[in-house]
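From the pipeline queue, job 12 of 40. The input is one protein chain; the requested action is below.

Action: predict structure.
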Amino acid sequence: MSVTGQQPSKVNYTAPDSLFTLPPELVELKQLARDIVNRECIPLESKFLANNPEWPRGGGKGGISVETLVDGTLEQSDWDRLASVADSSGLSTATLPEEYGGLGMGVLGAFVLAEELNRSIVPLPVVNVVNVLYFCDDEQKERYLLPQIRGEKSACYAQTEPEAGSYPGGMTTSAVRDGDSWVINGSKTFISGAATADFHLVLAVTDPVKRSRGGITMFIVDSDTPGISTRPLHTWQSQRAHQFSVFYDDVRVPDSAVLGEVGGGFALGQHFLAIQDRLTRGSMATGFLSRGLEMAVDYVQNRSTFGQPLSERQAIQWMLVDVLMDIKSIRAISYECAARADAGEEVRAYAAMAKLAGANWGHRSMDKLMQVFGGMGEAMDFPIPHWYHQIRHGRIGGGTDEIQRILIQRAIFKQGAKLWLA
């Protein structure tokens, strides 16, 4: 007997409000971003990866700059068009709170948008505000937050130190009060964009006894303040320096440079790391892998060896299955984290899970995609090797795999079964 098309007339339970499908506003945002990426960004990839050194690194109308680890760029006219499209579509400011001219799509909306934008190697110029700047006082908002929203100022986040990487509580950079000023001394390392940033968000020890329990403060420090110097660090991700060591030698800042409260810097830093670093490893992975899987499916159906399409070979089929499973799993973990953040919950453990899954499962799946494409998967005028570099870095940047496991195991014993029971 055929059961095709037959469905039970009813089920004896009350349907939940949501099966965690995206709300309609975010479905619309996702589709809009996907259409724009397909139409505007992907067709420019070959040109972008040609990497003409005479072309500008990034940025278009409105001053919004584009930072990318990929050694690629476009003509200024291309950047201007992308910026214009981002602005006219509303994507440029979609994730800003409504009071700052955005759509108020929250953390989940930012994740949805980032996933779609990550489907292309060509970045779309959108506003990316460092989330701790929303804790600025009114004067600081005028000097730093609003100019960043307008694309007039950029920031770097300075936490990691040579001897205090994944363990920020061990930092030695200090800030000592001197009258109505603070004097900062110390060094930071692997600070992205430090050489071009207009201001630094610096974490420094203000109470060596309390340290991470109320003894670390965040300061907003203008980059032209006397005593700041930088030195480039070259990594395998890019031929140009993107990360830097930063040295603070008797850097004097006023009391008004304190962001938030004295002693509240560690909590601010963890807020930044959870939402704007660790969770983004999930959107990076799902974006890279979803496009990579699309490309791989097309490739294996059109590439034949020994008289047979690659799509008919079980070894290839199973690798693609693994990639699909990883995409779905990473996305589910990340969606939950983002939705909980929008609900005002503490999400450090959930962000650690999103990062651990995005970086590790993303890396293993990107490795499979590279294998599917064979030699072409290593060609630098092709997105795969660039994505491979970035996603592998995800297992180190923002806290190593091991640190994420420490955070998660703490939650297991602190929160108990509510962490894993549905």
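Job complete. DSSP finds eleven helices and ten strands in the chain.
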